[in-house]
Amino acid sequence: MAHPTVGWIGLGIMGKPMARNALRAGFPVVVWNRSRAPVAELVAEGALEAATPREVAERSDVVVTIVTDSPEVEQVVLGEDGVAAGIRPGAVYVDMSTIAPGAERRIAAEIVGRGGRALDAPVSGGEQGAIAGTLSIMVGGDQATFDELGPLFSVLGKNVVRIGESGAGQIAKACNQIVVALTIEAVAEALALAEACGVDPARVRSALLGGFAQSRILDVHGERMIARNFVPGFKSSLHRKDMRIVDATAREASLDLPGARLLLERFDQLCDRGDGELDHSALRTLIDKEG
Amino acid sequence: MAHPTVGWIGLGIMGKPMARNALRAGFPVVVWNRSRAPVAELVAEGALEAATPREVAERSDVVVTIVTDSPEVEQVVLGEDGVAAGIRPGAVYVDMSTIAPGAERRIAAEIVGRGGRALDAPVSGGEQGAIAGTLSIMVGGDQATFDELGPLFSVLGKNVVRIGESGAGQIAKACNQIVVALTIEAVAEALALAEACGVDPARVRSALLGGFAQSRILDVHGERMIARNFVPGFKSSLHRKDMRIVDATAREASLDLPGARLLLERFDQLCDRGDGELDHSALRTLIDKEG
Predict the structure, then answer these.
(1) Is A1 part of a structural domain of the chain?
(2) Does B228 map to a domain?
């Protein structure tokens, strides 16, 4: 069976390597991006270029967006010359951005209203996962559409789970960001305590990795913190954005999540002092003693 | 080379299976415990019984204590008929309890003053780890004594790390308890949000296990939370005790650890409402909506 043509909107730190993986796997890829440089790069590798998101949709069987936040998704999908204006009957719109579950459901309904189908499929695993094609993909939408997209998802990620109906992928992503944020804080506080008590944090990390405290974050971000390497990775400003989504989603569900609230405050602190461009493991730097 | 005789003080949920593993590996074991039942059990399996902690020390090359908290350790070591009164010249006292690093250093100094040697070697891995001999053991004390105890530690645990000098094992354990507490809260809040939004928490757990949110706690305690199985495991009242140690240790080091402070409050809430006997994963129950 021939590969469906994949439209790709958003060629940032995540989107570009993902689109490249689709291209290398043999999918025809039609790209659009706000800035021009990554478009030229992918066109040189065989991608086709479209002039607008609408044109991407007009030429594609599947349209992926992976941009920063709800307003950007709304702009490229519902705005002038947006995806919704060009979506083909039966084509699948897949949002791989991380946005609020409620906004996602509204956008999906709009696509369905125009004869398309929609999935939300946010990812976890960072730039490295995007490059290696080992992302976790959390999917909301109906089972048949999910199954149909299996070949594309399997090129982009390793752990692809359908969570539930439309919006459920975004809810899972919000859950993911809670766990990641709090675990980074946990590792940061532990390593800060070790250092402040004159104990080698590398030995503490090593000991903790063998027990109940084990996590991928203790492994990867623990090492970053010890090396003081805060080159992203995943920017603190983006994790702040995600914690705002968590906060809003929890409020709508009448839930009080004190840990998530604390981590929104921590990211606010970090970003407000000008460190939003640093990797989210830079939460560690909030604990250093003054002076 | 003959196995050294191991004195064992404390036959609780952790101590009993650990002493049994030493016995089965061929170490002569001399036991004492506040309550009589586990003593009889181990004596039936070949252990010898002593009338007091002092007598344990008088008959042993290595003396292990694993009891609840600093006052208990001080009682069995420094109290009347305690370990310190009976320690042999050159014998090694090993405290595997979780207590404050400062208290540990004072107790170790007392033992050294009486001609003995001392290690602190708190553990992580729970009852299952104690039974299976797969505990993490975090050791403080000098390298030569640590090396000498290698054969015993290897029977009790899998990941045995010397962290540093006296007290360093307890500092690593405090770090461990920060990470475990905050990660449990992270998983609890994430699964609570999923449920409140009408999404299957089991699918969310499964998706998150494949990405950056992966942790042993998401795996083990996530499953407990979904099944609402809060049979300990590790009691909330003990984790509260450990978070108090963390709090005091952070204060002494002039560190502000907001996550650790939050988790002390959470465990206080849980215990004060009468749920201190539940597994620490019962933090999940604090997030349920009222009514």
Answers:
(1) no
(2) yes
In the stretch 143-182 of chain B, residues with CB closer than 8 A to chain A read 158-159, 161-164, 168, 171-172, 174-176, 178-182
Kindly report, residue by residue over B231-268, the tens digit of the pLDDT. 998 999 999 999 999 999 999 999 999 999 999 999 99
Interface contact A255-B217, CB threshold 8 A? no
Please indicate whether, in this complex, the C-beta atoms of A182 and B207 are within 8 angstroms of each other: no
Domain boundary among A138, A165, A192: A165
Are A30 and A160 in a shared domain? yes
Interface of B with A in 271-290 (CB under 8 A): 287, 289
Work out how many domains chain A is built from and give that number: 2
ipTM for the assembly: 0.96
Residue A122 lies in a domain: yes
Distance from CA of B262 to the nearest CA of A (A): 8
Q: How far is CA A183 from CA A165, A175, A189, in A?
A: 28, 12, 10
From chain B, the residues in CB contact with A212 under 8 A are 124-126, 136, 176, 180, 216-217, 220
Query: What tokens appear for B158 in the block?
Result: 């899998």
Q: Please, where are the H alpha helices in A7-166?
A: 15-24, 37-44, 53-58, 70-78, 83-86, 101-113, 126-132, 143-148, 150-156
What token pair was written down for A209?
């990795």
Report yes or no on B1 lying in a domain: no
Core vs surface per residue A86-113: b (16+ CB within 10 A) or e: bbeeebbbbbbbbbbbebbbebbebbee
CATH number of the domain enclosing B261: 1.10.1040.10
Answer with the one of A165, A195, A213 that is the final residue of a domain.
A165
Kindly report, residue by residue over B14-40, the tens digit of the pLDDT.
Answer: 999 999 999 999 999 999 999 999 999
Q: What is the CATH number of the domain that holds B76?
A: 3.40.50.720
Tell whether A266 lies on the interface with B, counting CB pairs under 8 A.
yes
What is the rounded CA–CA span in Å between residue A73 and residue A10?
A: 10
Contacts of A121 (CB under 8 A, 6+ apart): A94, A95, A96, A137, A138, A139, A140, A141, A149, A153, A169
- Domain with B69, as residue range(s), is 6-165
- Indicate yes or no: CB of B186 within 8 angstroms of CB of A204: no
